[in-house]
Amino acid sequence: MKVQQLVLCIAGLLTATPAMAVSSEVDLTQSFVGYVALLIFALAYCLVMAEEYLQLRKSKPVLLAAGIIWLMIGFVFQELGQIDVAKSALEHNLLEYAELLLFLLVAMTYISAMEERRLFDALQAWMVSKGFNFRSLFWLTGILSFLISPIADNLTTALLMCAVVMKVGGDNTRFINLACINIVVAANAGGAFSPFGDITTLMVWQAGLVSFLEFTDLFIPSLINYVVPAVIMSLFVPKTQPNTIGEYVELKRGARRIVALFILTISTAVAFHGMVHFPPVIGMMMGLGYLQFFGFYLRKTLPRSLAKKKAIAMANHDEAALKRLGSVVPFDVFKRVSHAEWDTLLFFYGVVMCVGGLSLLGYLGMVSEVMYTQWNPVWANIMVGVLSAIVDNIPVMFAVLTMQPDLTLGNWLLVTLTAGVGGSMLSIGSAAGVALMGAAHGKYTFFGHLKWMPVIALGYIASIICHLLLNHQLF
């Protein structure tokens, strides 16, 4: 393969969107506007990758880049007499983004509600109070990351487990670094076999390429991806006991019922998608209605609940309980909505619109021709995972979906797996890794993660082989 083709291939994969792009007969890949658009997006994404060092939120550069790219497209297509084509593509991308925005917003609202009701604090306190040694905590945080991330998403899960590790690890930098690497690998692997575990899997599911139950075919490969490096790294974790003090965390009223409502919301989204073939976001928005009604119930019954608890606390002479009751505030759904990761959601918009424009200019069609026509699709999908470690898995998967390659179910599952777990090879390859570098600043670092990349790569290779062997009938 020529060097020029490889460069174009990598450049195209850096330009990604979830939308099934509206195509144009105009090829502007060799035009001045096309080159400038590529340059603008590349510069914006360089600023995104340097977010930790520049302290510049990642949404800002891509929002600006999206506006400039589409402004240039508007002028060019107007001169060519095809402004309706550009407008149709723009509206198509906006519709795709709106579906994802609302879906993620509901999921983030539920997670924020669980956090406000202190569910995650209670889990953290339980783990600290049990007196586990460092090696036991290494395995416990990894296993819980793998099991929670399919529901709560890999980023939230990683941050939760990192808080536990930081609390028990103290000044033991070696343990914190290894435990954080283990959490990132486990959270990304757990998110790969569930539509709710990562934005990449959500995109594949919403595109109708893999059904909800078909994602379970990736469970064992994902498990292998986590277990192989975890077993090796655990040998370097000491069995010594951490110096920690346990604390009691009382769940706020309605905490467990919110978990039940979240499960019901997920079931509703799956039912809308599977039974009537509507976008899952319709079910998620209905689930937001569940939470709003429950919030209304909590507010209306708060005075009666407080009076009852106050009577019990006074009868037991529990001063601490009386003090806690004084700080109780009503549950507010819209306040939970405001706590969503708006920077991530706006970054998502910028990427979608930037790459929607680049796709209209013809770049992703060129890359698709190289990767999925001249290459074997299996090798192309493996390369997607490698690139996701460098670029971040979200834009890479968007690129693949926009290319619309003609793949078998086995290959769609393969690219879902590789894009999901490939980002674990570098700390900057996934949202979980980037977030933990900030949460455990100075203790979990890029180079600390890089030293274990060969071990993580073994898990990556093993998971691919496992998928090819177990699900060979799907190819």
UniProtKB/TrEMBL annotation:
Signal sequence extent: 1-21
Keyword Transmembrane helix annotated: yes
Membrane topology: Multi-pass membrane protein
Location of the protein in the cell: Membrane
UniProt keyword Ligase present: no
GO biological process: sodium ion transport
Entry GO MF terms: antiporter activity
Cellular component GO terms held in the UniProt record: membrane
Protein name (record): Sodium:proton antiporter
Phylogenetic lineage: Bacteria, Pseudomonadati, Pseudomonadota, Gammaproteobacteria, Vibrionales
